[in-house]
Structures are given as structure tokens and as C-alpha cells.
Design brief:
The protein is of the alpha+beta class and about 350 residues long. It is built from twelve helices and 14 strands. The protein has a seven-stranded mixed beta sheet with strand order 3-4-9-8-7-5-6. A hairpin with a 7-residue loop joins strand 7 and strand 8 (about 215-220). The radius of gyration is 28 Å and the shape is elongated. It binds adenosine monophosphate (AMP).
Length: about 350
Amino acid sequence: MYTFTDRGDRSLTLRPEMTASVVRAFIEHNLGGQSLPVKLYYFGNMFRYERPQAGRYREFWQLGVESLGSPEPAADAEVITLAVKYIQDTGIQKATLLLGSMGDEQCRPAFIRGLVDDLSSRSELLCDDCRPRLEFNPLRVFDCKNPGCRAALVDAPKMVDHLCAECNDHFDQVKRLLDDVGVVYQVDPMLVRGFDYYTRTTFELTSDELGAQNALGGGGRYDRLVADYGGKPTPAVGFALGVERLLLAVEALGEGDNIEKPYTGVYIAVVEDDARSLAFKLATELRSAGFSVELDHMARSLRAQMKSTDRLGASTVVVIGPDELSKGEVTVRNLADGTESAVALADLAGHLGAVRNDNKKV
Ligand code: AMP
């Protein structure tokens, strides 16, 4: 936790994640009073007092969704499928979906007792951090990368093998639904997510492109959290993706350039200075018509203006030259294919609209 004392001697903690905040908002604003499930999303910066390293920062961004209200395995499958689809849509094709189950209050306590008994018999293998965890938070041993702890875990009991009948049935149904829609997963008996609030389904999405910090995102079901915060018991499931990690993975794959570039905008260039006031007027009109428009305010030469189009990522340049202007026309150059056409000023918005629609279809 990123905790500090402010000038009023109050202890403040910056939010490390959003699910708890979403749950509090859900209760405070009585969102459960409407038709369930309630589906919410967020995008924001989070803070954790971690040792910074590649892909791990003290301030980072997450985007996430929460679906509150349904206990059905289909809600889990829907949320997982959305996370997978989102990652694929960013261009990352090689993410791995790891799937697990943390059981529930029926089966988890007995499992944890068995785990502690088992690991205690091999406690000499555990690292100095994990030995006390046997008492306070034994599931966390599964998160440890220490070779001794990994060795101790090989033969240790795994939650997915000790689920009660209901949890097992839920897990089977989630898997079947994912199979039905072709979402590929690996059941990972070692998958234990860091937050204590999870029940049943947990999942993580990893990318080989990322090195040690390879998790792109993760999530799971948290059927007790709303009640733990004082709300009416409400089952829920959600995920969070790490935005910086997504960007790192896209860069590592070299796929940033392959992602379809949407229409980005219009640049209005002038050949001679006396066309600048017309350029400003056209820019204002086109912006009102919904176009994203840039023009030069630095008295640059035409050559330098054309260079700016690249930097700004414009897809179309409107050139106002003296010859065309005398005919009430401008030249419209499509930067994607280099084609040019003379367009009457009165038709400019219509022409650009047609180009924009064509680009969207690409
Ligand atoms: P968590 O709920 O802790 O698994 O976080 C969800 C995702 O947020 C992780 O899979 C990472 O992609 C990202 N994330 C978590 N902590 C950090 C951090 N310190 N720096 C950057 N990204 C992070």
C-alpha cells in the first residue's frame, strides 16, 4: 500500500486497485436497486508501494470492468471473454489465459488447513518471507518465485483438486462456456490471485513478450465482497488490465505499426501567407462539422507545413494555393495513397466526409 501521513497528521492510502472502490460506490448509490447485473467499467491510475522494475511501477494505470449481480458461470465467461477480446483487439495475439478456482467458504478453509499441514512438513524449503505466511496468508506462497518455495509446492495440495461439488460444477461450466466460444485457456493449479476477496473463478492473462512481470491483467469472482462492505449479498465478477503492460507488449511484438490506424484528421496547408485567414475559417467550419483539423500557426513554409502532417498523423491535407483559390477550389491530398483532387470550397466538407467513411472501411 502507498500510505503516508498528510500535514493534518492523517494517515492516507492511495488506491491500489478499483474493485473495492467500485463495490463501495455500488453500495453507496444503491446500484443494486436496478436491474441486475450492473455492468461498470473504470480507467484510472493506481498506486502501490512496490520495488520499481521493468513493467512494475508505483503509479500505473488500469482499465477494468465489474459485473455485479449474477452468480451464473455465464457471467464469469462473459467477463473473461471480454478481457481476451480486448487484448486481441490491441494487436496482442499471443496472450495466455490462465484459469483457476479459489473455491468458496465451504471448501477453502479445509483446503488451507491441508496446505498448511503439508507445507509445514517441508518448511525448511520455504523462503524467509513465506515461512511466516503459513500462519498469516498461506495461499500467498503460491505467488512466490523463490526456487525453494516452488519446490515445496510441487507436491502440495492444489485448490482446484479440492473444490466442493458446487464450486467444481461452477468451474466446469465456466470452462465449457469458454470452450463453446473458442476461448483457449490453461487451467493453472498454482494460480492464486493476490487479493483475498476472490471466490471461485480466478484468471490471469500473461504475455511471453513481457519478461518477469508478464501479467497483462487478471480478475475473478468475488461473491462476498459486497456483503463484506455492508451491502446486500451480491455475487460479482470482474477484471483489471495493466495499461502500461499492454503498451509494452504491443511494442515488444512490433505490432504497434500493424494496428489499423483509424482516420486521424485533416491538415490545412497554405501556399501563400494571405490564405491564412481563409485556412483558419475553413478549419473552424470543418471542426464544427466534426472533423479533427490542424493548421500552421508558426508562419512555416509550405514544405515545413507538409512535414508537420506526418508528425501530427494527419490522413488528409487540404492545400490552399493561389491558382486553385482563384477558381474557388482547394487541392485535397489523401496521404494514404498520394492521390489528389481539386475540390470546390463549397463541397469540401462533403468530400472529406466521404474520404473519412472510406478510411473507416479499410
Ligand atoms: P492485479 O489485480 O494486481 O493482478 O493487477 C492487474 C494488472 O495491473 C496486472 O496484471 C498488471 O498488468 C497491472 N499491474 C499491477 N501492478 C502493477 C504495477 N505495479 N505496475 C504496472 N502494472 C501493474
